[in-house]
Amino acid sequence: MSSMGNDIVASARLWAARAAVSELGVQARHLRRLWAQPGTLLGVDGWPATRSERLYRRWNYWAQAHLIDCMVDAQERYPNPVRVSHLSRIVRSVRLRNGRRWASDDYGDAAFMGLALLRASALVPVDDAVKEIVHRLRYAWTDHAGGGIWSRVGEDFKGVRANGPATILLTRLGDRVDLQQARAMAEWMEDHLLDETVGLLWVGLHVNMDGEVREMVKEAYTYTQGVFLGVCLELAAAGDPVWAERAERTVIAISEHLANNGVLRGHGGGDGGLYAGILARYLALAALRLPALTGFSVTAIAASEIAQQLVMTSAAAAWRNRAVARGGPLYGPDWTLPARVPRSPRHTIPERELSAQLGGWMILEAAALLERSR
Asked: For this UniProt entry, which segments traverse the membrane (predicted)?
């Protein structure tokens, strides 16, 4: 093997090891049985945890979806039967904690859960989970503001957060009717939310009940660009070449407007701790898939290289700025800044939140995926 080949193998092992210890950190600090019941496991929202968090009075359905996704990433990186057992317990516990339902009244959260469970279904039983979630999403479509699905039951908002993951889920299922609806949602986002001057999508629209748009929320978050990038990749793979061009446009716009010195921008605590990690997941997929989707065009190869560089630079920054805590590395929501270790449950910094730790784990799994795919 050449010297360059040895370097690649060593790098692959390095990122895999870093992803592995990130997994151990989340496992040690955040995974607990649900209500002390045997055969259960769920992600605690904070560490150190408050009493309310330990009892799962407060829990984050959306974060559990990304916990499942991260565990599937880890299983693809290094298969382990113990992890599969844990994954099965988490899937079972999500339904139990959610009132024995798979879906959520938040269509965006439900779509992300559907995506995670669809991936997990190759490893553990998920019963009718995806079927239940997809049924809810199919009937969330209305013609208000030209189409798309609502963000949540009873809300007046339509945006990328729900339509993006729902489009990916429906496309991956491959049913003709679902694919037709997926294309309609994707075109609605392109037509109604694209800022043509920068190539990014705005968050979404507040819509009156008569269908009139009351307000456009003109913010561009990393995770919404990530899921739209995922939409582009899925529809391009389904045979629509224009979506490959839109994927290239999105990657370039992300690099120009949502990264600081090549590091994906952070969005603070709460759900924001996951935003950059979600984008990293889809950037890694773009780096791997874009060239082949376009017949290895020059522009697609260039966009693929940009996507890869964003992932690797961000992973290096997250690792460099990690803190040392019980069980493994601890990450902050902004990978350009040193992470802080929370002193107690009352120390309300983003680093104690499950979301920020999943975001850090996610970027390292994305880096490990790219390195082992070379």
From this structure: none
- Residues sharing a CB contact under 8 Å with residue 141, sequence separation 6 or more, in sequence order: 147, 148, 149, 181, 184, 185
b/e code 251-262 from CB counts within 10 Å (16+ = b): bbbbbeebbeee
Question: Is 190 inside a domain boundary?
Answer: no
**Could you tell me if residue 25 is inside a domain?**
yes
Sign of CA dihedral 290, 295, 296, 297: negative
Quickly state the pLDDT bin for 102 (edges 50, 70, 90).
very high
3-state class of 134 per DSSP? helix
Task: Identify the bridge partners of residue 117 per DSSP, sorted by sequence position.
Answer: none
Taking only the tens place, the pLDDT of each residue in 183-192 is 999 999 999 9
Q: Distance between CA 70 and CA 64 in Å, rounded?
A: 10
User: Domain total for the chain?
Assistant: 1
Domain span holding position 283: 1-32+241-374
* Tokens describing residue 206: 């507040």
Q: Nearest to residue 69, comparing CAs of 374, 370, 363, 373?
A: 363
Alpha helices per DSSP H over the chain: 3-30, 51-54, 61-77, 81-97, 107-120, 129-138, 160-173, 176-193, 222-237, 242-257, 275-293, 298-320, 354-372
Looking at the domain assignment, is residue 274 inside a domain?
A: yes
In a domain, 321, yes or no: yes
The b/e string for 287-317 (b: 16+ C-beta within 10 A; e otherwise) is bbbbbebbeeeeebeebbebbbbbbbbbbbb
